[in-house]
Amino acid sequence: MATTDHVKVQRIGPYTKGEIPRPLDITITDENDVAIDLTGFTADMVIEAVDQTIAGLGAGTSTVQSPETAGVTRYVWLAADFTTAAQYRAQMWVNKAGTRYASDVFEYVVEDLTENPF
Known about the structure:
Layout: E1 9-11, E2 15-16, E3 24-27, E4 42-49, E5 61-64, E6 72-76, E7 86-96, E8 99-111
Parallel strand pairs: 1-8, 2-8
Antiparallel strand pairs: 3-6, 4-7, 5-6, 7-8
């Protein structure tokens, strides 16, 4: 089943370098925007910087939420996702025995505006 013909780009943020926002809940849907039953699936967030290579992105916790039939995943951000000012793309992937689905793409900017006081 193709996932690219219905993928949308959603903008989130912007964020400041050092910030750690609340977890991101993402519903995995089919081409008709109907939630996919994620029973037995695992989740993995893929994050990449648009114009540069930055190591350590997307290492936070990715989970399928209960009830799995609702199709909701959650990504818990890490500080490493916000240490370098840049533009990023993130996409949640779910997998079960070789069946894979991808979420919409989330774009965000990390800006170097102030020094983190913590």
